[in-house]
Amino acid sequence: MYLERNDKGWNIMGMRVEKQTTLADSVTLNGIGVHSGGPASITLHPADANSGIVFHRSTKDGYVETEASWKEVTATSLCTVLGDPHDSGISTVEHLMAALRGMGIDNVTAYIDGPEMPIMDGSSEAFVEAIDRVGLKTLSAKRRYIRVKEKVRYVSGDQWCELNPFDGTRFDITIDFDHAKIGRQQLKFDLTPEFFRDEISRARTFGSVQDVEKLWKLGFAMGSSLENSVALDGDRVLNPEGTRWTDEFVRHKSLDAIGDLALAGLPILGEYRSYKGGHRMNHCILVELFKNPDAFEIVEADVALEERYAREKGHAELIGGLQAAAFGPEVS
Ligand SMILES: [Zn+2]
């Protein structure tokens, strides 16, 4: 088990959990959109407790607000899109969402000047650096979690994914590509800011040259280049620097899963497993979860953790019992 109590409060897997966090200051990232190829910039601002991650996108009629929620997902084929894809939607939110969840940030207001997140180098590294630049601020409100109580599973052909009850936040991601450089790769880990920063955040998106050429003809991936993706051609990696890890591919799929599951709105206490998953599967498991009110509950950090700490220590009695939080199940 990963719990320890210290003078700062409860820790789970090294992450301060007892209070919600936001950024200590505003920070801007500039880059290009991978699909439009045009300039894209985003500014992240500190936000109040319980506000979650909220995007404000500029349109000709002013800013349109979109919650970073699975309920706002409107497309998952090339990337995860929130909101109306023809008007005020925002594409490719997953790498920012992964950085925010991976680094343990609960509340941010993001202003974005166009339809797409900047792709940066195709990983979450620039977002982590931006977060590090301004630092985190601890808020007075307790962190809330979605705790998985019952297994939920989604199957599509030979792809599957599931959420299982688990005392922590664990990912177990398997990919299987018919490609000499990829093949079958599996990564299983407990999510901590340290693990995310060191082992996940720098893993870049990837694709075959042939697929990119097809997308170009359709007007997509116009900004895609060796600067922001690992390009595969036959059994070769075209990037002169090669891959950052031999299993960079499953690490990136893990990054995407962290970002997509962050659209649950709160951190998940549970184990997410997926086989041949992707944005669509990651979205479908959240739909499955929230369809079934018996499968989850919302708990506050210290209540959930004290109960589990007591169980770890072999106490028969719960400390204060386990309570559903007082707020309504707005995510159901
Ligand atoms: Zn990705």
State the main characteristics.
single chain, 332 residues, alpha+beta, lpxc deacetylase, domain 1, seven-stranded mixed beta sheet, five-stranded mixed beta sheet, 7 helices, 23 strands, disordered N terminus, disordered C terminus, binds zinc ion, lipid metabolism
Verbal overview:
- This protein is α+β, with helices and mostly antiparallel strands and 332 residues long.
- The protein has a single domain, classed as lpxc deacetylase, domain 1 (2-Layer Sandwich), CATH 3.30.1700.10.
- It contains seven helices and 23 strands.
- The strands form six sheets. Strands 14, 15, 16, 17, 18, 22 and 23 form a seven-stranded mixed β-sheet that branches. The chain has a five-stranded mixed β-sheet with strand order 5-6-12-7-8, with helices on one face.
- Helix 1 packs across helix 2.
- The longest helix has 14 residues.
- The N terminus and C terminus are likely disordered.
- The structure holds zinc ion (ZN).
Q: In summary, what is this structure?
A:
By secondary structure, the protein is α+β, with helices and mostly antiparallel strands.
The largest sheet is:
7 strands, mixed
User: CATH superfamily assignment?
Assistant: lpxc deacetylase, domain 2
Low-confidence stretches: 1-17, 315-332
Portion of residues in beta strands equals 25-35%
Q: What is the number of beta strands?
A: 23
| Count of folded domains | 1
**On the 0-100 scale, what is the average pLDDT?**
87
CATH topology: lpxc deacetylase, domain 1
Q: Under the CATH scheme, which class? A: Alpha Beta
- Bound ligands, each once: zinc ion
